[in-house]
Amino acid sequence: MTRTALPFLAPVACSGTQRAAAHMMAALLLDYPTAGLRDGFATLRSTAADLPRRVERAFTSFLDQVGTWDLAHHEAEYVRTFDLKRRCALYLTFYAAGDPRRRGMALVTFSEAYRACGWQPPPDELPDYLPAVLELCAREPGEVSDLLLGAHRDGLEVLRSALHGLASPYADVLDAVCLTLPQVDAATAERFTALVAAGPPQEMVGLSTPLLPFPTTRPVEALS
After folding, report:
1. Is 219 in a helix, a strand, or coil?
2. From residue 11, how far is each of 52, 82, 178 by CA, in Å?
3. C-alpha 127: how far from its chain's center?
4. Which helix (H) or strand (E) holds 82?
5. Cβ contacts of residue 171 below 8 Å, gap of 6+?
6. How many CB atoms lie within 10 A of CB 17?
7. Strand ranges (DSSP E) for 41-142?
8. Taking the CB of residue 121, how many other CB atoms lie within 10 A of it?
9. CB atoms < 10 A from the CB of 10, how many?
């Protein structure tokens, strides 16, 4: 895998509705593949058609490539990419902190952010699991959910760069997400460069457990 940093993507103009749709699409596509997800590819293509052109092209590129796979191959590629590659972790706090024992406070912050938005953290995953965070951003757009992605933009860019280095179709999904986010600032760019050079800490996160079918979060009132 190459350690060459990719140039940052210039953000596209998109409405709040388009941004939410893009984040929900990415949440679904970055989760563990299922037959149900693959059966919904036609619907996802239709949703992508209403997004800004560059975002649509990124999602369509992914769907075109992965749509040629059968489910067993898709599952194997997912595990090979996200569970066995240290630079492709789907846990946002991993890139800066590594082992969960050193990520405790950051994970608490994620859990509190879900609750501040009126939702419970995902029951079957760590709260910084990218598909769950993207789902929260889609369902509850606003300052709190935006901060979760903004504070870990360097990790997102490391993941995007790593996926491009693997020539993985999943790189297109990260492109689509990053196209909907604000321009990378100087401080984030500096942290990103350092992470690309050094890599995330050596401790491995355990193999991911597939989430339950979406929605994975539930309104707080639904639990009472």
Report:
1. strand
2. 11, 25, 7
3. 12
4. none
5. 160, 163, 164
6. 11
7. none
8. 21
9. 10
